[in-house]
Write a structure and sequence with these properties.
Elements lengths: L1 E2 L3 E2 L4 E9 L5 E9 L4 E3 L10 E2 L4 E9 L5 E11 L6 E10 L3 E3 L3 E3 L3 E2 L4 E2 L3 E5 L5 E7 L4 E3 L9 E2 L4 E4 L1 E3 L5 E11 L7 E11 L5 E4 L3 E2 L9 E2 L3 E5 L5 E7 L4 E3 L15 E3 L1 E3 L6 E12 L2 E12 L2
Parallel strand pairs: 1-9, 2-9, 11-21, 12-21, 23-31
Antiparallel strand pairs: 3-7, 4-6, 4-8, 5-7, 8-9, 10-14, 13-19, 14-18, 15-17, 15-20, 16-19, 20-21, 22-25, 24-29, 25-28, 26-30, 27-29, 30-31
């Protein structure tokens, strides 16, 4: 007998048996499928496939059979081996099981949380369940930008056993503001009409909120004689996310300047305060107003913060 492996309906598996001629004369062969022809066929190729004749004195060959189940459950067949040995034809029982994996998704639509441009937001996970009768082979999961599949949170592997479940996690990283849509595509070995599972994706990109905050939001400078210099009250800068580039420009440059004693450099770690120190050098005896403009870059892009300064020259 030949027992073929459990095989998905419509997919072909190759089964085999080894024939031996222990006799003293060549064995002529004429194999054919006499029952179960809708599920079994003689394989047309294969290494060491049996030909029309098998030499004597222990020669062997491998006879291959194709198993392509037409339905689920046990599938039986018979291989008839027409030959010139006594008792011909010889019959070989064929057996196998047709299976049918079924991919069932927990949802067909996901709405991701609103996210600032260039900032990644997590989205609802999709649960894949195999409700069929055979192992589900998951070939790929893909979601084009601005969406993507989060490999660190996805639990699905290459196969999913019967009655088992796994999750596919999606993220959303908008590059522009406004509504965005996409499709999560999952390909597997479920029936051909259902071998691609799709989930509609949607999200909304919003303008990035200012990451940098100043305390206080404005500063005053001590009264000082014209053409002399005083140091203004300090301002503490804090960012909710890392700043990769920061430039500070005081204006008017002839009267306000960022001091070298400032602890704020060209970068700033998240939630790590730094102190901004500004000097005041009035050009004349009058109330003088100025600003320090801070241009900074984060994962959300480049933003600008302006801190007003004021002082009096005497």
């Amino acid at each position: 007998s030949i027992t073929c492996p459990a095989t998905v309906v419509g997919i072909t598996a190759v089964c085999s048996t080894t024939l031996t001629n222990p006799g003293t004369a060549p064995l002529t062969l004429a194999p054919s499928i006499t029952a179960g022809g809708s599920d079994y066929q003689l394989h047309s190729g294969g290494t060491n496939a049996c030909t029309a004749s098998l030499a004597a004195n222990g020669a062997t060959c491998t006879l291959f059979v194709d198993f392509k189940p037409t339905a689920t459950g046990a599938r039986a067949g018979t291989l008839s081996l027409g030959d010139n040995a006594p008792g011909n034809p010889h019959t070989i029982a064929l057996s196998g099981t047709g299976t049918q994996p079924t991919a069932t998704l927990s949802t067909n639509a996901i709405t991701c949380a609103d996210s600032a441009t260039n900032v990644t937001a997590t989205c609802q996970q999709v649960v894949i369940s195999n409700t069929g009768t055979g192992a589900l082979t998951i070939n790929s999961e893909a979601a084009p930008a601005p969406f993507g599949v989060d490999a660190t949170r996805t639990t699905c592997g290459a196969t999913l056993a019967v009655n088992a479940s796994c999750t596919v996690a999606v993220f959303f990283t908008p590059t522009t503001t406004g509504a965005a849509t996409g499709t999560l595509t999952i390909t597997d070995n479920a029936p051909v009409a259902n071998s691609t599972q799709t989930v509609n994706l949607s999200g909304n990109g919003v303008a990035a909120a200012p990451a940098l905050s100043a305390s206080p939001t404005s500063a005053t400078c001590p009264t000082v004689a014209a053409h002399s210099t005083s140091t203004c009250s300090t301002v503490t800068l804090t960012s909710t996310i890392a700043i990769s580039s920061m430039t500070k420009t005081a204006a008017p440059a002839a009267e306000f300047a960022v001091s070298g004693t400032s602890s704020c450099g060209s970068t700033l770690a998240a939630n790590t305060p730094c102190t901004l120190v500004v000097t005041f050098s009035p050009a004349e005896a009058d109330v003088r107003d100025g600003t320090v403009t801070i241009s900074y870059t984060t994962v959300s892009g480049t933003q600008v913060a302006v801190i007003p300064y004021s002082g009096t020259g005497t």
